[in-house]
Amino acid sequence: MDTFFLLLQQANDFLWGYIVITALVFCALFFTYKIRGVQFWMLRDMIKVMTGRPIFNSSKAPAATSNRPSPSDGTSPNDADAHLKKIGSFHAFAVSLSSRVGTGNLAGVASAIFVGGPGAVFWMWVMALFGAATAFVEATLAQLYKKRGTDSFYGGPAYYMQQGLHRKWMGVLFAVLITITFGMANQVVQSNTLCDALSDTLSLDRRWIGATLTLATLAIIFGGIKRISRFSSIIVPFMAIGYAIIALFVILSNLTSIPSMLALIVREAFGIDSALGGAVGIAITQGVKRGLFSNEAGEGSAPNAAAIAHTSHPVKQGLLQALGVFTDTIVVCTCTAFIILLSGIYDSGRDGIILTKYALETHIGPAGGLFITAAIFFFAYSTIIANYFYGETNIRFITSKKSYVNIFRIVTAATVMAGALISLQEAWSIVDLAMGIMTLVNLAAIIQLSPKVFFLLNDYMRQRKQGHDPVFSKEMMKEGKEDVECW
Q1: With 70 as the cut, is the pLDDT of residue 63 above it?
Q2: pTM of this structure
Q3: Which residue(s) pair with 158 in the sheet?
């Protein structure tokens, strides 16, 4: 088994050290340029979409022109969608955020600092700022090529590969990869981290923790997407806001140390203080790798959640998913990084959630450990639920047989249990390989389909400039409209 994980680590070093990072950086910069950096200056639109308000008040906007579809109360303008349950943009945002905001924010950031040093935080920030453009592109495509289910929309990369690129084989490959990554490998990390926190704080047997978590997971995933979206919309804002308040308290209590901490991050990011030639490379690799695990920009996971939303224009959900990247990395991941670095114990030899737990205890005492334990429970549990949804969506792409979905539910439960029994670094090795391959397949697809997104963005900006709340219809497309089922 040790030999297996050694070979796995060597494969990850090559894949992430050369291929995945190059592809992610290229796409992030290319898309930022092509969409004119909308992730930086359209915060107002993002907030309005999230709260369900129109971009412009229609009563004050100019009259609609004949070639502009009529808005339908913030939902898709197609009458064929009227029977579907309306899952709003915020609920879809919450599902994707519940996957993003998980152990990557607490344990993943800690592991990045443990392996790559404080400089890894800087590269996390860089990838989030520019990677939000990649998230915008993939989420917009998911909305464009979404499909109608019996009671809600569904979609994601497998569907835009099939519909937009006409490559069913590519969609099947991605569906298999994301099912392995999120339905199995990723669940191991979530479960492992949660069990670490609870066993360390409460001295509980990991096996009993794993069994309880497994049963709780089954109770939710057998309830379907409505129960999943409802659960996520309640728990995700609560846990994110609570964690941000704790971090703000830590920052305000250590204001005089902030400049030196920021200087440390920058120095370590560029190897200014390091005597090791490979230190910068390690910092970049860890920052990008753990940043991707946390915010998922370009990975192809969040588009599965973006596709379920009722919205009047595909670009709206793209903007909201870009906001999700900022929320995850610039807010929540930064909270963890500051808590760890300001504690002064980042180089104590501790790793993962244990490092985060003891770092917070140095700031606020034993209550910090209890808070982290509670936080990681909600973070990890909500992520397990959202990860399952991504897997189910892609199982349904491969086959329509209900029995396979039920089998997948049992497999999900088994991997949650397995996470209680292996080490953290072994869990990371499994996730990194699956996540890297999946990301490359998704990036190859969205680069080819990106002209569709640029067209949609131009249409959105045109209507916005005219003072309209943007509404889209596939009849506005010059080519490829026959590949679009909704709209």
Answers
A1: no
A2: 0.81
A3: none
* Structure-token pair, residue 14: 């090559």
Given a cut of 50, whether residue 73 has pLDDT beyond it is no
Q: HSE of 82 in the Cβ direction (CA atoms, 13 Å)? A: 4
Q: Answer yes or no: are the C-beta atoms of 288 and 297 closer than 8 Å.
A: no
The phi, psi pair for 455, rounded to 5°, reads -65, -45
Q: What would the 3-class secondary structure string for the chain be?
A: CHHHHHHHHHHHHHHHHHHHHHHHHHHHHHHHHHCCCHHHHCHHHHHHHHHCCCCCCCCCCCCCCCCCCCCECCECCCHHHCCCCCCCHHHHHHHHHHHHCCHHHHHHHHHHHHHHCCHHHHHHHHHHHHHHHHHHHHHHHHHHCCEECCCCEECCHHHHHHHHHCCHHHHHHHHHHHHHHHHHHHHHHHHHHHHHHHHHHHCCCHHHHHHHHHHHHHHHHCCHHHHHHHHHHHHHHHHHHHHHHHHHHHHHHCHHHHHHHHHHHHHHHCCCCCCCCCHHHHHHHHHHHHHHHHHCCCCCCHHHHHCCCCCCCHHHHHHHHHHHHHHHHHHHHHHHHHHHHHHCCCCCCCCHHHHHHHHHHHHHCHHHHHHHHHHHHHHHHHHHHHHHHHHHHHHHHHCCCHHHHHHHHHHHHHHHHHHCCCCHHHHHHHHHHHHHHHHHHHHHHHHHHHHHHHHHHHHHHHHHHCCCCCCCCHHHCCCCHHHCCCC
- Round to whole Å and give the CA distance between 116 and 112: 5
Please name the amino acid found at residue 380.
A
Q: Among 271, 207, 415, 285, which Cα is nearest to 9's?
A: 285
Q: For position 458, what pLDDT does the model report?
A: 95
Query: pLDDT digit string (tens) for 130-147?
Result: 999 999 999 999 999 999
Chain segment 459-483, per-residue pLDDT in tens = 999 999 998 899 999 999 988 889 9
CA–CA gap between residue 73 and residue 467 (Å, rounded) = 17
**pLDDT mean over 46-63:** 69
CB-based contact 122:288 (threshold 8 Å): no
Distance CA 345, CA 339 (A): 10
